[in-house]
Amino acid sequence: MGALLDGKAYADRILAEVKVEVAARTAAGHAAPCLAVVLVGEDPASAVYVRGKVKACAETGIGSLERRLPATISQAELEAVVDALNADAKVHGILIQLPLPKHLDTKAILDRVSPAKDVDGFHPLNQGRLFQGVKGLRPCTPSAVMRMLELHGVALSGLRAVVLGRSEIVGKPMALMLLEANATVTLAHSQTKDLPAVCREADLLVAAVGRPGLVEGSWIKPGAVVVDVGINRVEDLALGERIFAAEPAKLAKLREKGHVLCGDVRFGEALQVASAVTPVPGGVGPLTIAGLMRNTLLAAEDH
Ligand code: NAD
């Protein structure tokens, strides 16, 4: 029986480290790092994420400012907001909360954020730096997962790692960071043939797909470390009965509330095979916010 890989606890450790470094910075007479969060529209999930980020800023001594903008904002108006934040010397990091309303060109907005303030690590210049293995702001989720694996004592060199999902936000940068740490990396995706067999080769399996309960216990190599990045809302009881067969408490909650959050991995099944598994919620989500705080500090240090 495996153990819970407690992402929340590791996130708290990363936040505590950031807090100490922020305090040292301000004690030395420098301004506290400051994160600007841009939220366009009224999407309730985005509002929750923004609240979490602002709260983490307060907890670590990082300053924050919110720019709440109407869903009707034009591309030019939003670009002007980004330009103003780029030019504001008090702002060290800029985060554009996604998704943006459909009429806006997301890539053009993200590319407009100054690379020096790009705390999400999405700018092509920072992506290029990651590709080259040089210093730069890196995407929060994979970099915080790397820190968790380090704190957990996972020896990555020579390890067989499989990353499921090839998004620019998680899958691709995760694969590059694991490669940099000398793991042997397979990047699997929706077109991969015989996904279960590919996953079964993994000493470290990172799932970032967005499909509830895709990864079954039988896909996992005994003793593997499993990191579940997926965050999925499940309302369908028939689906829940299938994927939560080994998680009676989750199934009961689904029956009671009509919805639950879960990852891409069948957590209850995975616990029976893996050596360690991150839960959802309470795993990679808090780590991502901790990674954002670290990036904001790094952005401030480069000023
Ligand atoms: P995305 O939709 O951009 O990419 C999904 C990837 O999964 C694609 O590369 C696709 O090829 C692959 N895929 C889709 N179906 C597949 C299948 N059946 N088998 C194998 N691969 C398949 O997603 P994303 O932005 O990387 O997010 C992935 C998940 O992680 C989502 O649930 C998202 O909510 C979550 N997420 C969580 C955090 C966090 O903080 N915990 C951060 C970012 C994303």
Distance between the termini: 48 Å
CATH architecture call of the largest domain? 3-Layer(aba) Sandwich
The top-level CATH class of the largest domain is Alpha Beta
Helix count, DSSP H or I runs of 4 or more residues = 12
Radius of gyration, taken over Cα atoms and rounded to an integer in Å = 20 Å
* Element string (H = helix, E = strand): EHEHEHEHHHEHEHEEEHHEHEH
CATH topology assignment of the largest domain: Rossmann fold
List unreliable stretches of 5+ residues.
none
Shape: globular
Number of domains: 2
Number of strands: 11
Biggest β-sheet strands, sense, barrel: 6 strands, parallel
* Structural class category: alpha/beta
In percent terms, what proportion of residues is strand? 15-25%
Query: Are any ligands bound, and if so which?
Result: nicotinamide-adenine-dinucleotide
Q: Could you name the key traits of this structure?
A:
303 residues; 12 helices; Rossmann fold; binds nicotinamide-adenine-dinucleotide; alpha/beta
Write the layout of secondary structure elements.
Blueprint: E1 3-4, H1 7-27, E2 34-40, H2 44-60, E3 63-69, H3 75-87, E4 93-96, H4 106-112, H5 124-132, H6 140-151, E5 160-164, H7 171-180, E6 184-188, H8 195-200, E7 204-207, E8 225-228, E9 232-234, H9 237-243, H10 248-257, E10 260-262, H11 267-271, E11 276-277, H12 284-301
Parallel strand pairs: 1-11, 2-3, 2-4, 5-6, 5-7, 7-8, 8-11
Antiparallel strand pairs: 9-10
Helix pairs in contact: 1-6, 1-12, 2-12, 6-7, 6-12
